[in-house]
Amino acid sequence: MKIIKKGLLPYRAVEPVEEKDTGLAVIFYHGWGTTAESYLEFAEALAEEGYRVILPELIYHDSRNLLANPFYPPILQEFFWKTIFTSMDEFDGLLEELKILAHQLIVAGSSMGGFIAAGMGARQKQLAGIASINGSGSFLLTEQLLRTRDLRPVLSPDEKILLKHYDPAKSERFSGPMLLLHGKEDPVIPVEGQMAYYQCRVKKYGPQQTKMILYDGVGHQFTDEMAAAFIEWLKGLQQSPLTAKELVTPFISQEIKSLLGYATSPGQAEEAYEEYMAAANQRLYRFEIREDVVGCIGIHLEEGQLKIRHIAVTPEARGQGIGGRMIEWIQTEHSPCVVVAETDRKAVEFYRKTGFTAISLGEKYPGVERFQCERKEIRYEKC
């Protein structure tokens, strides 16, 4: 499965499992001081899902003028942005060498690679998607935050001009799907830069195309949860459009009765449906793919808060990320400050993977542990 190539721009390539080939490729950029080789295991996991994966060697890394001591502060400060800018400048040449069309390509990266991936938003319009993990798309703001933290001199006018030239937050061109993942306690790359970039994207293009997940208790690590969220997002790029319709008829259909039965119990489905029809602050939505009902979600609305009362996906449609997509739709539709849900141990991992924090409520019923799950909307005024 591993293919090592050395071309005009050296890279590692991992080909997809043939029977699962999606026709999409992922270019994944590594972080500062690491190597393309270090992401081969992750690349193989992506290949198992049907993606061709390209791991570029970066300037000042691997075989390209490797720095003797990359983490020595003066060296890091001198070459960090040079590496990012050079990688962005080399991108068109890499595409030409790989013979990949932009609309068949997802660009992603971790740490410094997350900066590079986000940077493509200032250069490319036709990509299939961009994912920045523990990076930032706010170049100027992030450098200012780093200098303040490290007690370094402020940026000179020329340095500001250079950063603005490459900064996607200042010259965003990509309006397509973007994923931003970041540890809330990241001590290396300030999370505020990523948050600012998210807000810039939402302001310019709306919230539908940009997804951001912040992870409680996570520092500067690419965790298994982040990897799973990235793969789930990739799968969503291929999925058929998910359409939603609010249910207002007093008569419950057999499909919705079955779905509510999964979320409650078959004997309580009709009663739950009647509650939705009677309450002004509750909504019940049906979700379809190609006119087939695949799920439903019922919510309770209060000032600034959306509570998920019931959520269910048909057995045939499970494992495709539909539950997470329904929550994304609900959050976009109602724009609450916070989304909450109460669940059991069996379902709590679903909420965690969808960006919720979870706190145990103990045994609310004998032998049944319950969890309070919460996901806050990201609001950040500064761009």
From TrEMBL:
- Give GO terms: molecular function aspect only: acyltransferase activity
EC identifiers of the protein: 2.3.1.-
Record keywords, A-Z:
Acyltransferase, Transferase
- Give the top-rank taxon of the lineage listed in the UniProt record for this protein: Bacteria
Q: Which residues form the N-acetyltransferase domain?
A: 246-379
InterPro entries found in the cross-reference section: AB_hydrolase_fold, Acyl_CoA_acyltransferase, Dienelactn_hydro, Dienelactone_hydrolase-like, GNAT_dom
Protein name in the entry: GNAT family N-acetyltransferase
Which organism's genome codes for this protein?
Planococcus liqunii
